[in-house]
Write a structure and sequence with these properties.
The complex is a heterodimer of chains A (258) and B (289). Chain A has 258 residues and is α/β, with parallel strands linked by helices. In chain A, 39% of the residues lie in helices and 23% in strands. The mean pLDDT of chain A is 91. In chain B, 75% of the residues lie in helices and 2% in strands. Classes of the chains: A alpha/beta (258), B mainly alpha (289).
Chain lengths: 258, 289
């Protein structure tokens, strides 16, 4: 059985099929790019995997377990982390707090620990702060640790959101357009970080429009169009694929009649 | 002096109310518009226990606070999943229900006739029935409320509450059980409001439904917003100013019939000016989105 699998998934919005009987699987430790024209159902798929949308039909399997009907926070606890296309940070909290919210606490998060100011809580807080500072080093934001997240630049916020997803220590990571709108240097940084994650044994699925980034990062590419999988293969295979070119550019054989 | 202490006692009771509402509204981001209902539960519980069964307010106060907390769970459980505006309406509705029960369940609450002769807290053979003896009591409770809530908001637990205020969906994707945390915050808020209600009843020695009108909840919201959402010190300042300020009107020599509606108008005006000039409140950091 595969590490991560989607079986006959369908999602309808008022009669429109955003996902249409989609099946796919992803190997453990691989990087998979999800591409497709606008409205192909990529983000909808992410929202279903992470539990924010419930499918009309079909199943999502993770580690041999059906997770389709779990609450989003449970899915996150199971080990699936994600970022959002339109960046969802805790804007009026500090950069450090944003990361601490991703890190795991055991007893330190309870109300009782808060009221008694328990030793355990302080200890966990200290350990997690160290981990958070390390993550900040990784994304070169150490000097901004006490700044409010809302005061960061777009690129920095994008990086912080990715770092926060890393803090979750998820086994499967979903990145929704991680490099969209970034400077080339930032994009390189993100590619580097994602490749490091792979070396640590993480599995990554990401949505991307830039084929250069896809070629550099992905082991496998899955192409969606109208909620269906129209192609699957290595980045090089996908470049040559006629269906994919058609989906993006339209058919080229038929001349336009005026 | 006695008058001055009286105002401070009332201010401290409102400080407890606005501190506890701030945890819910300012830190967790839940627009709760029925806070006074929990004070009513606390007040009626400990008053009735004392009047009908002779139970000491020292026991009645915690029992009232626990019943208020249970009330918080009962209304919170079905409504906490509602989106902002709907939650606000549900809690306001709860305030109306509690008010109506106080007014119409005459066998229990004596309805509009109210409960006169509520006994004071007994203390070392005597009782806390003067402003001089009551002031230390409300001060102690206000301080306890402040320090407990301070610990809560400055902890990993409090950080989660604030993350829910900032972005519920992101909090869920961080693996936080958002509904559970909201319910806990709401229940803590109700608990402390119950304490405030009980303190009020055993001080004034008379309560009736008009002490807990739904509009009173709006006044507490105003204190929180005025002082600053997400700032406990702001709530202390907001409650103090908004309790003392209308009292100043008395010195201008306005008759009560004018002063009372004027208080409401001034509150309303303050809120409008504040929203335009300083939406984060006097010493708050958190801005409306």
């Amino acid at each position: 059985m595969d590490f991560f699998e989607i079986r006959n998934l369908t999602k309808e919005f008022d009669g429109v099929r955003a996902i249409d009987n989609l099946s796919l699987s992803v190997d453990k430790g691989s990087i998979t790019a999800l591409i497709g024209p606008n409205g192909a159902g990529k983000t909808t798929l992410f929202n279903i995997i992470s539990g924010f949308l419930k499918p009309s039909n079909g199943e999502v399997l993770y580690n041999e377990k059906i997770i389709t009907h779990l609450n989003p926070y449970k899915i996150s606890q199971e080990g699936i982390g994600r970022t959002f296309q339109n960046i969802r940070l805790f804007s009026q909290l500090t950069v450090l707090d944003n990361l601490l919210l991703g890190l795991k606490y055991n007893e330190g998060e309870s109300l009782l620990a808060a009221i008694t100011q328990s030793k355990k809580m302080k200890q966990e807080e200290k350990q997690n702060t160290e981990k958070a500072l390390e993550l900040l080093k990784l994304i070169n934001l150490l000097d901004k640790k006490d700044a409010l997240a809302e005061n960061l630049s777009y690129g920095q916020r994008k990086l912080l959101e990715i770092a926060r997803a890393l803090a979750l220590d998820s086994k499967l990571l979903l990145f929704d357009e991680p490099t969209a709108g970034l400077f080339p240097e930032m994009t390189e940084k993100i590619i580097e970080v994602v490749k490091q994650l792979k070396q640590q044994g993480k599995t990554i699925i990401f949505i991307e429009h830039d084929m250069k980034v896809v070629s550099k990062m992905a082991d496998m590419v899955i192409v969606l169009n109208y909620g269906k999988k129209i192609a699957e293969g290595t980045p090089d295979e996908i470049r040559q694929n006629k269906d994919v070119i058609e989906a993006y550019l339209g058919k080229i054989e038929e001349p336009v009649k005026i | 002096m006695e008058y001055f202490l009286h105002i401070l006692i009332i201010a401290e009771i409102y400080i407890i109310l606005s501190l506890s509402l701030n945890l819910v509204l300012g830190f967790t981001g839940l627009p709760a518009f029925g806070h006074i209902a929990f004070a009513a539960i606390g007040a009626y519980t400990s008053s009735l226990l004392a009047l009908n069964y002779g139970i000491s307010p020292w026991i009645g106060l915690p029992v009232g606070a626990i019943l208020a907390a249970i009330g918080g769970i009962l209304i919170g459980f079905p409504s906490i999943r509602l989106k902002g505006d709907y939650f606000a309406l549900a809690t306001f509705g709860f305030g109306l229900i509690v008010y109506s029960i106080a007014k119409n369940w005459v066998e229990l609450t004596r309805g509009p006739m109210g409960l006169p002769g509520i006994p004071a807290f007994p203390f070392l053979g005597g009782s806390l029935d003067s402003v001089f003896s009551y002031f230390p009591l409300t001060t102690a409770f206000a301080l306890i409320t402040y320090f407990v809530l301070k610990r809560i908001v400055n902890s990993p637990f409090g950080r989660i509450l604030q993350s829910i205020r900032e972005d519920e969906i992101a909090a869920l994707s961080m693996g936080k059980n958002v509904t559970k945390y909201k319910l806990i915050a709401f229940t803590i808020g109700a608990f402390f409001a119950g304490i405030a209600g009980s303190l009020y009843a055993h001080y004034i020695t008379f309560i009736d439904p008009t002490s807990f009108m739904p509009m009173e909840s709006i006044a507490i919201v105003l204190m929180v917003v005025f002082g600053g959402m997400g700032s406990l010190e702001g709530s202390i300042l907001g409650a103090t100013i908004l309790v003392i300020f209308p009292e100043l009107l008395r010195f201008v020599g306005l008759p009560d019939a004018v002063a009372a509606p004027l208080r409401q108008m001034i509150y309303g005006l303050l809120l409008i000016v504040l929203m335009i000039k300083r939406p984060q409140g006097l010493i708050g950091k958190y801005k409306f989105k």
